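Hey L., structure's done. Input below.
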Amino acid sequence: MKQDENNRESAAYGRDEIITKGVSLLTGEPKTAIKAMAWPIFVAMFLLTMYNIVDAIWVAGIGSDALAAIGFVTPLFLIVIGFGNGLGAGVTSVISRRIGSKDKRGADSAAIHSMILALVLSVLFTLLLVPLAEPVLIILGAGDVIGLTLAYGHVIFLGTVFFMFTNISYAILRAEGDTKRTMYAMAVSAVLNVVLDPIFIYYFGMGIAGAAVATILSVAVVSLIIMYWFFRKRDTYIRFSWKDFSPDFGIVKNILSVGIPASLEFVIMSALMIILNGMLVIVGGTDSVAVYSTGWRVVMFALIPLIAIATSLVAVAGAAYGGRFYSKMNESYYYSLKLGFIISAFTAVLTWIFAPQIALIFTYSGESAHLAPTIVAFLQTMCFFYLFVPPGMMSGSIFQAVGKGMNSLVIHLFRNLFFIAVFAWIFGFVLDLGETGIWWGIVAGDIAGGIFGYLWASLYLRIILKYEDKSPAVDTV
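Output:
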């Protein structure tokens, strides 16, 4: 079977078409592709997380008001980033499917459409966020620090085009199997921002506005590097040939059919956090929220390897789907589950053992020391949460890979709002288990959501496997 697949793939490419190492990896053995693509994404996300921590440390030197100001801007900024990431998932899905089906011209056209779409959305976000920043931020509670908030927010919002451009560029590179370049670009951005922060904040005396300028400049420099790769060096598989370009709203529709639902997943996650915060305030006051928000940062940090695998799965399974190699899709899905479970189990064991040491990082001061035992208990409860994240996460990715963004959104919706939120309410209030009950409700909802996603995805794969080697393809782009 594998030899037949390789023969089909080799025959499908024209003699004059240059196949990059990334595309060869993407369309090759699924296990190898996922492992090779996931680790650069993990490194890039790790560096980005560390950069955010260091960035907060530099800003903290200005004062608590500056930290608060950034905190008020963050929700609006996350809307832009969330939409960029969601749109990126759509771009990766569409381009990888066209690469898998050996439609080079279609892949190039999809990339051009995605760049135009990113530019249009950047202009819209900028025109909305810059003039409306002050009234919206005041509504969010930034009245006491509105001056600092606007000094930071206006600069950040004016740089929306750079954030959107880099997100879409990373998605294009992932779609052609080149995750190492995304790692290099994100590493340059992270390191550059850490270096520029103290220069603009303190040396030039710009304060919190300097932090925003440093962030924008770091992303702008990376944008120039990416433009060099795409338009000057031109050694990527995707080529931007404007002379052959013609608008195709079908491509835009395919990108948005995954991109919009993926963006809404970020909104759902924010809604869940608001709901859980409200429950925790009722049962335990602000200390309960502090424990949850602090512990959840650790959880999100621990999920980085799983997110990297899931992101790789979109491209690998998308290429397999485009080429109608459904057995490769099946193999990539179950391998991602296996790898994700192994990592989750390892993470759970480490978290259980080192929970006291992890809690100490956030409770070293006298004001927060009393939270340490509760944070330890929360982290050890979340050890059971980790084990059922892979089924839900990988199932969402497999549906994004084939262009079924709404299926992924439904899995996310059920897992977060119908399962986690409901179980948290039942355990916390109906069973009267209070704060601890809400934690176990999160775990129970995660288990239910993981099982739901797995059953749906595995059923879909069993059905689609029946169409292997048949024509036409099922639900093609």
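Residues 20-247 form one domain. The longest helix spans residues 249-302.

-- N.
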